[in-house]
Structure formats: C-alpha cells, structure tokens
C-alpha cells in the first residue's frame, strides 16, 4: 500500500483526487538545505530524507516492510535563490515583494521508498513549473500576509488558496505548484506497483485519510486494484493505465517537456522485457547507467552490457541522444549561425554538459563571425585535457577560418577556470596571433552554466 510521509493537506487532497488510497504518517526529518545542491537535486534529497524517516516511523507502528513510502518537498526559486517557508510576516512580505511581477520556478522533488527483495530501493524524480506573478502593491501584499495563508508555504503563497489570485500564469503542472507533480508521480508509483482505485471513474474521491494512530492496532485498508484476469500475473502493462498518465498520451497532450527522463526513455524503448514492464526497464537502465549523464556517455557495446538492452535498443537510444546533441549544436544550420556574444557560443556546446571526460573543441568563424564548423581537438581524463596549438589551429587553417572560439567542459560541473586553463588560453592566444587567427574567447562549460574567459578578462 501507499503511505504518505507528510502533514500537508494539499498533498493528501491531490492523491485522493487522483484515486489513490493511502495512509499517512508525520515523521520528523532534517529539512536543512543540502550544501551546494541545485534546486531539483536539493528538493529530491529532502524528499528522500522525509521518505526514509516516514518508513522508520511506519515500521515502528507495525506497518509492512513491503509498503511504499512517499516523501515530497516543494521549493520556490528565483535567480538561483531558494525561498523556503517564511519565518514571520515580515519575511513573507519581503518574499512576495521580490516575486512581484516576475517569473519564478516551483520545484517539487519526490522520493518513493519501496521493497526490492530483502532490501529497499529509492525512486526519485522532480518537476519544475514556471509561475509568473502579477505586479503586487505593498497594500495587497500586506493584506494577503495578514490573512495568515503564506506563513507555512514555500515562497510565502498558497496556489490552492487565495494565493492563486497573485498568479498571472503557470507554465507546467499546476498540481506541482500545489505540492505534487501528479502526472510524473503516477508513473513512478506505477513502477513501484501502486495504482489508483479501479472505481475512480464511477465514484467521487474519498476524503483524505487521517494519520494512523500509533496505538490503535488497526491497519488501514490496502489500496483496491482491479481483479486479475485468468492467467494474469498481476503485473500492470502501460496499456492498463488511465489515458491521462500514459507517457505517449501525456506527450501528445502536454508536450514532451512535461515527461520525466524515465517516461522519455520508456517511449523510446516501447516495450519491456519478460517480467518487467517498460517503465521498470527504463528506471533500472537509468539507475544502472547513473542517470542521463551516464547514459549519454555510454558506447554501443557498453549499453548492450546493461540488463534488458540488446543491440537494437542500444542503437535507438544512442541515435536519440545523437539527434539531441546535433540539435543543441545547430549542426544543420552551422553555416547560418552567427556568434555575437558568449551565450551564442555556449548554446552550440550544450551537449558538453553531459560528457564525463574533458573534451576540447574549437568553433571556427569567418570574418562575419558566422560558424564554419565545430571541430574536436582532444579528449582527456576526468579533470584534464591535453591540447597542443598545432592540433587546435589545424582545422582553422583547413577551413580558412578568420577567428576561433576555444571550448572545453568541466565534468565536475563547476565551470570556474583553473590556473592551467588560464595558462593554456594565453598560450593559444599567442599562437593564434602568429598564424593570423584571432582567439575571440574560451568557453568553459559546466553542468548548468558556463564561463567566458573573455568576459573574465583572461583574454585581452
């Protein structure tokens, strides 16, 4: 059965509206923000803490080790800063004043702790919605805060209540803004063997359950499932899901950006394996390859060694990843692309975020800064690449380039240049002057951002 590790009435209502039957526990968990975590990773980490604490409490109360525990955490971010729950009315007013007239992100991470034989496994995912506020007057902010609603809400507003009136528009899941990205969560629950009640279409949702008393000795009812057909193994197929949460139908209705990595991979794979549906297959592939970054770094033989992937599936996955890389590089329009600022160059290098080794490339430009090509120079180790000026400018001479932009990635995710990066850049700038080829910039690509050494003043 499903157990919600949360005191949030909003999350209870969402689960009930989507047809899930569940019990509730309210564990104490460490809610301090993980050091140096990005919003999605941080929300998932907090959700996992809550789920783990909920599982311990559930087992102490006599719950089954086979039950699935759900933890979730929702945060608001603006300009990279995390807005949690305000400590008091003054802080709530300050938060709302900053959000006024601007677009911020609402990130919800969730974690499911479920049985995996004698051990447990954790299924984590997150969703992001963009929320734009109306321009708010100081009087309107004070009136809303005085109502009391903002004081226990991330970002100091409740979208399910009066806070909805502050919002101009939402891009993405509205359920996510309330507290649970239900479309994405349903797919994760499906992979853990938890399904909505079979009579959802005929009956109104039941009221959210109260917390199970520790001393009642009564176990809450298990979630109802459709009766098995003769010969049915009990394993749900994708075809058994309601249309609103099937990956293909969700992609058609909401766009592929609304799908999680697991769902996108499941659409590519199309079918599971004996004893494993396609969502479970996608989940274990992402786990075995250490996520999307690890998957993108695998070769065909390496992918074929992952359980459940044969030659055809491996080739399909790699083809999809290569299309993404080419789209990110604007391969089809390189002769039309013009680099006017560092961000233009960074867009051409977007795929380098996923690489697990240092790759050094050179963007080749004509006299009008139009892109002639993007060529690899070297592939190094986890934290260094070896670059010789001869190799760097060989392709520039072949293309007849007037100028170049150097580029490499930092697999650590931090794009800050090292001392070696600065020394190498200065050496290549001097080499370019000898050859009559100007080095316009050196872009260092990190996990979610980049650094322009020209803007830093390392190239003069």
Structural write-up:
- With 460 residues, this protein is of the alpha+beta class.
- It folds into three domains: 2-191, Maf protein (Alpha-Beta Complex); 246-327, DNA polymerase, domain 1 (Orthogonal Bundle), CATH 1.10.150; 332-456, Cytidine Deaminase, domain 2, CATH 3.40.140.10.
- It is built from 16 helices and twelve strands.
- It has helices at residues 9-17, 39-60, 89-99, 138-146, 174-178, 182-191, 247-254, 261-269, 278-288, 291-297, 300-304, 311-329, 342-347, 389-399, 419-435, 453-456, and strands spanning 2-5, 22-25, 68-78, 81-83, 103-116, 119-133, 167-171, 359-365, 371-379, 403-409, 438-445, 450-452.
- Helix 3 crosses helix 4 (138-146), helix 8 crosses helix 9 (278-288) and helix 9 packs across helix 10.
- The relative contact order is 0.07.
In short:
The protein has 460 residues and is of the alpha+beta class. 35% of the residues lie in helices and 20% in strands.
What is the CATH domain class of the largest domain?
Alpha Beta
Structural class given helices, strands, pairing?
A: alpha+beta
Instruction: Describe the main β-sheet briefly.
Output: 7 strands, mixed
Helix content estimate: 25-40%
Report the CATH topology name of the largest domain. Answer: Maf protein
List segments where confidence is low: pLDDT < 50 over at least 5 consecutive residues: 198-235, 331-335
Label the CATH architecture of the largest domain.
Alpha-Beta Complex
Count of runs of 4 or more consecutive helical residues:
16
Large-scale geometry? globular
């Amino acid at each position: 059965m499903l157990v919600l590790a949360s005191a949030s009435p909003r999350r209870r209502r969402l689960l009930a509206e989507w047809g899930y039957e569940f019990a509730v526990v309210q564990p104490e968990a460490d809610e301090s923000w993980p050091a140096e975590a990005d919003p999605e990773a941080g929300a998932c980490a907090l959700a996992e803490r809550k789920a783990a604490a909920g599982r311990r409490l559930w087992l102490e109360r006599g719950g089954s080790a086979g039950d699935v525990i759900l933890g979730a955490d929702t945060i608001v971010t603006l300009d990279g800063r995390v807005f949690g729950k305000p400590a008091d009315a003054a802080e709530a007013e300050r938060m709302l004043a900053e959000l006024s007239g601007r677009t911020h992100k609402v990130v919800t991470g969730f974690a499911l702790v479920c049985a995996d034989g004698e051990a447990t496994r954790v299924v984590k995912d997150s969703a992001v919605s963009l929320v734009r506020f109306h321009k708010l007057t100081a009087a309107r902010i004070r009136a809303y805060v005085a109502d009391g609603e903002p004081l226990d809400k991330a970002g100091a507003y409740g979208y399910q209540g009066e806070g909805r009136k502050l919002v101009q528009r939402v891009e993405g899941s509205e359920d996510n803004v309330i507290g649970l990205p239900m479309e994405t969560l349903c797919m994760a629950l499906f992979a853990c063997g938890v399904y909505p009640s079979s009579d959802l279409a005929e009956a109104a949702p039941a009221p959210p359950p109260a917390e199970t008393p520790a001393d009642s000795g009564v176990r809450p009812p298990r979630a109802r499932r459709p009766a098995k057909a003769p010969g049915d193994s009990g394993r749900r197929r994708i075809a058994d899901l309601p249309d609103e949460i099937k990956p293909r139908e969700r992609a058609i209705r909401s766009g592929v950006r609304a799908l999680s990595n697991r769902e996108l991979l499941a659409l590519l794979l199309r079918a599971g394996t004996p004893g494993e549906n396609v969502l479970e297959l996608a989940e274990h592939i992402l786990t075995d390859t250490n996520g999307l970054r690890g998957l993108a770094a695998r070769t065909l033989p390496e992918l074929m060694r992952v359980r459940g992937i044969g030659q055809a599936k491996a080739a399909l996955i790699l083809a999809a990843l290569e299309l993404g890389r080419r789209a990110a590089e604007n391969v089809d329009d390189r002769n039309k692309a013009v680099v006017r600022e560092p961000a233009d160059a960074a867009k051409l290098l977007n795929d380098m975020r996923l690489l697990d080794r240092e790759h050094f490339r050179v963007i080749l430009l004509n006299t009008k800064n139009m892109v002639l090509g993007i060529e690899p120079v070297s592939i190094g180790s986890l934290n260094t690449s070896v670059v010789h000026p001869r190799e760097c400018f060989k392709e520039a001479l072949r293309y007849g380039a007037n100028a170049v932009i150097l580029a490499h990635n930092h697999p650590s995710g931090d794009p800050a240049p090292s001392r070696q990066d600065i020394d190498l850049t200065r050496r290549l700038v001097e080499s370019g002057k000898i050859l009559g080829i100007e080095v316009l910039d050196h872009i260092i690509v990190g996990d979610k951002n980049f650094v322009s050494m020209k803007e830093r003043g390392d190239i003069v």
